[in-house]
């Protein structure tokens, strides 16, 4: 059976190009995108989500399938447990992260944007809200609110009773509801905002862009200590406008932009002299830009060259 090997772990994960696929591999490949989406929503990191998939495969490959009643639920349970373990470790790492931390941006396929609920839950703004939950709260919220799993299945995945999971879900929902972004606007308004941003970058004329910045617009920039980035959130149209003006003067005519779908929403790939300089996810509400999430950390830009399939 052909396989590709994860460089970090040396673990072999099944390839979809296999000609003769055994049942365990077939089930895993069928649900791979779902498992990746679960892990990514819990971790905010595609690299760590891929590691979770490797660990899930290793455990799944040793399971007697005749003893498994619901194979999808069993795989989700394994992936959730692995993601929870990794999330607790990542939480300690992020305490020493240099500057603001942002999720690893994913270029997503059009079907993700069409699934409004999925797009909202994987958006940069929402992923940052999920960061404020405890690991168990995050797992319960993701499995219940995004993937609509029964409380009994979630209980098995997180090692709690169904009654405890209901309480955790209620607490997590209330926490998220108080912090989640408002509803996004129509595709037409979103395109107009992106066009103004693109025009400002390409021509140096900021006025149209300044006209669509919300009064309380916020900019978050993640360089991870490897690239220059603003060390704290910048809030307010005036301050954000000055920051954008400075950035355009600094990079000059060498910068180009490409409109893309980032985490199910509007975004731009920034290139400097043809090389990827960063990815911006754009939050638009009521026709105005309310959030700009710029990722410049090169360790988080490895997937920018291809789209990532997410599914529920």
Structural descriptors:
elongated; 312 residues; two-stranded antiparallel ribbon; disordered N terminus; six-stranded mixed beta sheet
Question: Can I get a quick summary?
Answer:
The protein is of the alpha+beta class.
Descriptive report:
The protein is an alpha+beta fold and 312 residues long. Helices cover 48% and strands 18% of the residues. The protein has 13 helices and 10 strands. The protein has helices spanning 23-30, 32-43, 46-60, 71-94, 110-114, 116-122, 124-130, 135-146, 151-158, 162-177, 187-203, 207-211, 237-251; strands spanning 3-5, 12-14, 107-108, 213-222, 234-235, 255-262, 265-272, 275-285, 288-295, 307-308. The strands form 3 sheets. A 6-stranded mixed beta sheet has the order 5-4-9-8-7-6. It has a two-stranded antiparallel sheet with strand order 1-2. Strands 3-10 form a two-stranded parallel sheet. A hairpin with a 6-residue loop joins β1 (3-5) and β2 (12-14). α4 crosses α9. The two termini are 28 Å apart. 38% of the residues are buried. The model is unreliable at 1-11 (pLDDT under 50).
Number of helices, where a helix is a run of at least 4 consecutive DSSP H or I residues: 13
Give the CA-based shape: elongated
Q: Unreliable stretches, pLDDT < 50, 5 or more residues? A: 1-11
Name the quaternary structure. Answer: single chain
Strand content: 15-25%
Order of helices and strands: EEHHHHEHHHHHHHHEEHEEEEE
Described by strand count, sense and barrel closure, the largest sheet is: 6 strands, mixed
How is the largest sheet built, in terms of strand order?
Answer: 5-4-9-8-7-6
Q: Determine the mean pLDDT.
A: 89
Q: Helical proportion? A: 40-55%
Output the radius of gyration. Answer: 20 Å
Query: How many strand elements?
Result: 10
């Amino acid at each position: 059976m052909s396989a590709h090997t994860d460089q970090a772990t040396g673990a072999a994960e099944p390839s979809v190009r296999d000609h003769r696929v055994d049942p365990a591999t077939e089930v895993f490949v069928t649900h791979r995108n779902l498992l990746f989406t679960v892990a990514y929503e819990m971790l905010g990191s595609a690299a760590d989500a891929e590691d979770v998939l490797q660990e899930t495969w290793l455990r799944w490959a040793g399971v007697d399938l005749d003893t498994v009643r619901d194979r999808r639920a069993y795989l989700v349970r394994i992936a959730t447990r692995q993601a929870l373990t990794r999330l607790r470790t990542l939480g300690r790492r992020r305490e020493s992260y240099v500057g603001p931390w942002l999720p690893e941006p994913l270029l997503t396929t059009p079907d993700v944007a069409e699934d409004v609920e999925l797009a909202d839950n994987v958006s940069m703004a929402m992923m940052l809200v999920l960061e404020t939950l405890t690991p168990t709260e995050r797992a319960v919220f993701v499995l219940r609110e995004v993937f609509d799993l029964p409380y009994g299945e979630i209980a098995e995945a997180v090692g709690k009773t169904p009654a405890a999971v209901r309480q955790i879900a209620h607490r997590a929902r209330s926490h998220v509801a108080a912090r989640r972004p408002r509803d996004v606007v129509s595709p037409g308004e979103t395109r107009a905002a992106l066009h103004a941003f693109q025009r400002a970058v390409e021509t140096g004329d900021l006025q149209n862009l300044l006209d669509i910045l919300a009064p309380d617009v916020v900019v978050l920039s993640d360089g991870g200590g490897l690239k220059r980035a603003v060390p704290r959130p910048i809030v307010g149209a005036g301050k954000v406008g000055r920051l954008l003006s400075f950035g355009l003067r600094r990079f000059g005519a060498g910068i180009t932009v490409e409109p893309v779908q980032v985490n199910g929403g509007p975004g731009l790939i920034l290139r400097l002299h043809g090389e990827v300089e960063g990815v911006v996810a754009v939050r638009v509400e009521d026709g105005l830009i309310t959030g700009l999430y710029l990722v410049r950390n090169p360790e988080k830009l490895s997937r920018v060259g291809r789209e990532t399939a997410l599914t529920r």
